Amino acid sequence: MARSSVAAIDWITVLLFLLLVGFGWGNIYSASYENETFSLTDFSQPHVKQAFWILFSIVLIIIIQAIEVKFYERFAGLIYVISILSLLGLFVFGKTISGATSWYAFGPVGLQPSEFAKACTALALAKFLSDMQTNINLIGHQLRAFLIIALPALVIIPQPDPGSALVYAAFFFPLYREGLAAIYLIVGVSAAVLFILTLLFKPLWVVLAIAAVMLFILIKNRKRKPPYSKFLLALIVITGFCFSVNYIFNNVFEQRHRDRFNIVLGKEVDSKGIGYNTNQSQIAVGSGGWTGKGWKEGTQTKGGFVPEQHTDYIFSTVGEEWGFLGATFVVILFILLLIRLINLAERQKSQFSRVYGYSVVGILFIHFAINIGMVTGLLPTIGIPLPFFSYGGSGLWGFTILLFIFIKLDANRVNEW
Fold first, then answer.
1. Distance of CA 65 to the CA centre of its chain
2. What single DSSP character describes residue 313?
3. Paired sense of beta strands 100-106 and 95-97, if any
């Protein structure tokens, strides 16, 4: 890399990345620590593998920064197609781990293409939206954008890996920033709220409550001649949706997903079965108090009460060993990273870079919010790692590629006119 390119790199973002990766490795070290069998050279130990993956991430960063910046825009479509083919190839060549055929096995090393497909989709969406012929207010162009987002998600769901597919909702962030009508976001959030309410209460009660609210609005605004037909149509759609929730929940969702929703919603208590991980994670986080039990001193962590704690539940190690203050520190690091990336996205001179930047923000936010919610029992367990923090080579490499492509684009913004 030229010296000017190195100077243009946003080192604040790099520092936040290093802090998250470093602190994450320290907690993986602690979660896998055993007095008698622990070794700094045993590649079977999670912390040793993670150290290797971190070192290889540095190699990836150097390669990303060395590639000509126009490459990412020029070949965005081809990169996206290759990522879709890699996802489809799993159905023929994939290895099944924990019930999901989401991995390619290369000897002792496994790669999960869904972790890399997020960056590929972000490039493809940025390329499409930055095309001079694209107008996000046109229905046809909206459908094409939705197709770019939905295609990898639809391929991932049958693996089955609904957690990774859910992450693609993050792409509504850049779409909304580029002018997509807010009605889509309102409808999406409303559907999620109605889904939860219908699971908690009978569909009829939910519909009657909504009808009462609509009637109140109509009466209050009767002098303005409100659009009665639109209110009626909305009520019909809502009624149909609410009465279809139970069918979807019982016939589309798998039993393990139904169990996790029921536990979070308080409809079931299963601290020894499907709810074991969440229950033990909450105990670990709660037992840390204000300052924690100390690094490598967590009794829940040392006792192995939270299965595979170094992966999706790594934040419970933070809560137990570093306490409320340590957990708050991690949350602040992520918030600072997200705020910094939003600021970088807003200062981009090209739409391609801005869209890609907001895609990065959306993906990281969804992962961060869902993982923390999952570990603390606010959301059902769906297997989403904490970016830069959880154990795993594919996850770390995927997030590293995602972030540092944007850092490369930002470093080149002075040449984007």
1. 24
2. T
3. antiparallel
